Amino acid sequence: MSRAPAPTLNLNGYTDLPPGxxxxxxxxxxxxxxxxxxxxxxxxxxxxxxxxxxxxxxxLFRAIGQDWMWFSRLHLPDDALQAVIxxxxxxxxxxxxxxxxxxxxxxxxxxxxxxxxxxxxxxxxGVGRGSGRFLMNEAIRxxxxxxxxxxxxxxxxxxxxDALSFYLRSGFTAYKRSIEVADDPRLKGFLPRDAAPRVxxxxxxxxxxxxxxxxxxxxxxxxxx
Length: 225
Hints:
CATH topology: Aminopeptidase
Shape: globular
Strand content: 25-35%
Number of helices: 5
């Protein structure tokens, strides 16, 4: 007996989110051949250093992504994060300028025949010196020195407003779009309450209650329902 076709999901219009949730439009991009890289003038005191220490990684990750709601690595225990950044097929780098970590680049070669540009970002003080283009050049150069079919990345509407256009200018092509829903990391304690002020915190009654001290029970009623 043949099954009836599944009803078509209508995604038009507004969809309410429960309090405590955030949502973003995610754009997926790919690059299937190495483009011609733009030449950059040398910047004295700038270098890339491998990161294998979870504490250093999280400090830099938070400094870069706090205002853009980066939280995916902050909830990982140190041993789980170490398993990622210490993996032989994952290359995590700090961009160091005059002895200070100012940027992050991570390439993940675990997908067979592919490379994911997992993270690329700068702390606010690192913007405006050509460091973003330097990181992108290094990402493309290091990815395509391996026999990969494509380099891929995704960015979302919570990220820096220039991120998507930067990827497109760098030679990536957009191929898919999704909606991502997640718990607000500020309410989970992974980011400070005042992070990403352009995205207001919306919490429900239950969330507010858990942040308050429990009320003292009235005499004679404790434990009754």
